[in-house]
Each structure stands twice: as structure tokens, then as C-alpha cells.
Amino acid sequence: MTEKDLQKEIADLQAQIRKLQKNNLGLVFEDKTEDVVVQCEKNIPVLKEVKTRRITAKDQSNNLLIEGDNYHALSVLNYTHKKNIDLIYIDPPYNTGAKNWKYNNDYVDKEDEYRHSKWLSFMRHRVNLAKNLLKDDGVLICAIDENEQAHLSVLFEQMFPAYDQYTIVIIHNPGGTQGNNFHSSHEYAIFLVPKNKTLIGLQDRTDNPDVRPLRDVSTGNHLREDAKNCFYPIFVKDGKIIGFGDVCDDSFHPKSANVIRKDGVIEIYPIDPSGNERKWVFARQTVESIQNELAVVENRNRKILDIVRTKTMFNYKTVWTDGKYNANIFGTKLLREILPNCDFDFPKSLYTVYDCVFSVVGHRPNATILDFFAGSGTTGHAVLEMNKKDGGNRKFILCTNNENNNEGNGGIAESVCYPRIKAIIKGYKNKRNEKVKGIESNLYYYKTDLVNIEHLHKIPDEAKIRVTYQAGEMIAVREDTLNEVEKNEWWQIFEGDGRMTAIYFKEDKSKLVELIEKLEKKKLPVALYIFSWGKNEYKGEYSSAHIQVEDIPEPILEVYKEINRL
Ligand SMILES: C[S@@+](CC[C@H](N)C(=O)[O-])C[C@H]1O[C@@H](n2cnc3c(N)ncnc32)[C@H](O)[C@@H]1O
Fold first, then answer.
1. What is the distance between the alpha carbons of residues 411 and 466, in angstroms, rounded to a whole number?
2. Residue range 364-401, pLDDT digits in tens
3. SS3 (DSSP) at 516
4. What separation in Å is there between the alpha carbon of 70 and the centre of ligand 1?
């Protein structure tokens, strides 16, 4: 080691000690430099579409598949989708020590004494970028197993102080793996939910509902006098609830549980078989909110009509045991039904991902869902199935590298994730030669690319011009206008969903008026990005009713400078 290297090592160690001293949570790990992160000091990630892989249908929302290292993909998304994502679902490599996770192009094995540090650095870099993408009410879910769950929970606690953390246990392998003391049959899903917000929906248990009397039948003294607002008549006619009466006066005592009025309406009171005046479990002011869960039943023993409540919607439990979470049957085998020759290690059960995603965006039909460890694309598949089921318009963004886990048959992105999503959208024949109908949607396939800028904190003018020429598809993604309709040396135009995006490349503005006239003729809303050395230089001059002017490349460079400071 040269003296220079030694000094650098000492300086790195001192910087780490300073960082650790600031850190009072107890998770101490060495931040391992990663090539893909270092690359971003001299290069800017952008997107390039692989047009031959585009899949489109009429009037459908645009889903994205981005091939590349997710550090680069997430950098791009910091420009295109800041605070735009409802749910991030990720299933990172579990760091098992088996040859399934590379750090700086090398597999990390069990003997590597820095294996936890490397993995935590890897996760921290990416989650730091991903965090900026969440809406204020956005949720992050991370699948994980016992190899890193404890470390990851502490890391999340440091990184997400304004979020509650819930760790769900999922029985994904009911038979259990071979092990010394235990056969492990579960893994985890960590949910990060903004504090003090109820954002997880209810689980539909229609198959196993909870049916019980509305009258408080619990043991103990739950009598009328304990909750006066809970003693009122429920009006029934022809076996149906037709309304609710006022809370009864203290002096009023019905003669029995059913009082038959002259007009044929029956007033039902919460009176028990011994004649005690009990209470309904819902107060008068709230009972209407559950009216659709109530029904009139005949109590044959007492020869009266009674009211029961059938509850089908419940908070999710923290242990998920259903057979549909079996990763072998509904992950590996299901994937082989779709892609018979595909050999992908450990896809999730479709239903594990579906239920995780549904718990957050089941009631958000226009949500955007991001998975930046997409692997075989289970998350995209789940989102498409969800839209099919409830007519929703949710979109997904999948990012995955193109590692070759499928020797000789191309990488994961192009030979597993893309063909799977394509098959789900277009339909496919399963192993029994039965046709499975497609779920119409759009898919745009991008690769990440790097534009050299020499140094992020001192970018020469030629590099700024280079970025402007190369940023078109990334800007089109930001504006969700993905179809390029024109490109020449002066400008580039994209269209989509009744809107346009145009990029004017040059400092020389002699052709700008021509471009603007062309755009005005279309009478569509346009986002016009004009090359500028600074900010807000052309907003006042060229904005109009149809045209909103933006600068390029400065705002892009600012985003990258910001995330590189992290
Ligand atoms: C555990 S798998 C995810 C499986 C996925 N949930 C499924 O059901 O198919 C993790 C995936 O992340 C991908 N991956 C790992 N490191 C990555 C990186 N730095 N950038 C992009 N993808 C990465 C791997 O190729 C692998 O396919």
C-alpha cells in the first residue's frame, strides 16, 4: 500500500468514526463504496427506450420496465417521479451466502466478514433514493428473511423516523427448509407506514365471516345503564330493517324484545332471554354506518326476531398462513406455467405480493406501484390482476438488472421479467395447452444509460449540452407522454394521452418560434423544455395558454447533485 493509499484509508476511517459518533441507534456498519454509486459522480443516468419491446393497447395506462442497476434507475426516478409513488414493494436479495447476490460484481459468500456491511450499504444507498419517491401517504413494503431482518429493521428505524414499522410473518414454505434446530417455514414483510395514519385497508374475509348478535352478549355487566345511547329500537318490516328509533327515555321500558306496532312494524330491543335490558354494541349515532352488515334473524328458541351483524372486513393479522402464500406452488410452479423453460430462483407467490399490494392500494384505483428488485415481475403481474378484478387503473414501474440467472438464455430482465409481463398482457397457453386470456395494458421497456458529465460538481458546458440531447426519453417518462413523434437536430417531440412534450436542444433560439408555431397548431397542452444555461430564463417569454415552459438541463443536474449529497 502506498503512502497516499494509506492516508486515504485513514481519512475514510476518520470520516466513518465521525458518522458513527452522530449515530445513536446502535447499528454500526462500514459503508462500503460501490462502483455504481461512484459512477454517478462522473455520469448522469438517463433512460433509453427499447422500442421493439413496446406493448400498447388503446386507452390503457402506461407501465414501465427499466433494465439496469436499480441505483441508476432510482436516480432517474428521482427526477421523473419524486413524491409520486403510492407503494414501493421490494424483495431484495436476502444475502444468504449462496451465490445469488453480487456486490461490485463479486458474489458475497458466508465467509465474507463484511457481508452484512456490504448488504446494508447496498440497501441504504437504494432506499435513500427510493424514500424521496413516496407520496406523503405512501407506504414501503420490504420482503426479507432471517439473514438480514434484524439488521434491516434497525436500518429502517434510522432511515424512517416518521414511519411506524410493522413486521408481518408469512408462511411461504409450509414444509420448512432443512436446518439444524428448526425447519424454517416463514419469511417477513416489513411495512413502513407514515406515523399516525391509517393507510392499510381491511381484509375481506367473506369466506369466513364473523356472525354475532348485535345485542351485547359478552359476559359481565353490559346493561342498558352502562351506555344509554345503545338502547333504542330497531324497526323491522317484512323481515327487513327499515330504520332506527331514537334513544329511549330512562322511564321507558319495553314489555319484550319485540314490540309489534299497529302498522305492522316490529320494534326490536336488546333484551336478553332473562328479560334484562342490555345494549346494542353500536351506539345510536354510529349504527347506521354498519347498516349493510345487519340482518334480521328468527330466534326459534325464544320465538322472537333478533338482529345479527355479519362482519367480513377485518384488519389484517400479523401472521399470514394461507396456503396461497406457498412460494413453490404459486411462485416457481406458476412461473413455469407462464414461461415453461424459465428457471428463476425464488419468485414470490403471486398471492403474497397481491395481498401485500392490495392491503395498501386496494382502495387506490389509480395508484402507482414501484418494485426496484422486480426479478421475474411478480409485482407487475399482481397489479395487472388487481386491475382486472376491480377495473382499477393502477400502474407499475419495475426495475431489475439483467443478471444471468438463467444460464445461456439471456438475463432476468429480458428473458424472464419482460416475457412474463408480456404473456400476462397478451395472454398465453399454459402447460396443459389451455389459453389464458390477456389483461390489456401498456408496457414500455427502458434501459438505463450513463451520460458522461466529467464531474457532477463542475460540469463543463459541452457536457450540459450532451445531457440535453440525451434526456428526451427521461423527460417523456416524467411527463407520461411516451411516444416520440419527431426528432431532428433542433428539437424532439413526444405525445401521449392528449398531451405533448417538446425539447428544444440549442442555445441558438432561431428555430424556437417555428417549433412553438408547430406545437400551437395541435391545440394540446404542451410541456416545452428549452435549453438554458440557467433557470427560469424563458418561462415568461414563451409560456402561453397551451404551453408550459420548463428549463433543461439545470433542474436535472440539481436533482443529481442533491441525491449525490445523501
Ligand atoms: C429476490 S429477487 C426478486 C424476486 C421477485 N420478487 C419475484 O417474485 O420474482 C431479487 C432480484 O433483484 C435483482 N437485483 C439484485 N440486485 C439488483 C440491482 N442492484 N439492481 C437491479 N436489480 C437487482 C436480481 O436480479 C433478482 O432478480
1. 30
2. 999 999 999 999 999 999 999 999 999 999 999 999 99
3. helix
4. 9
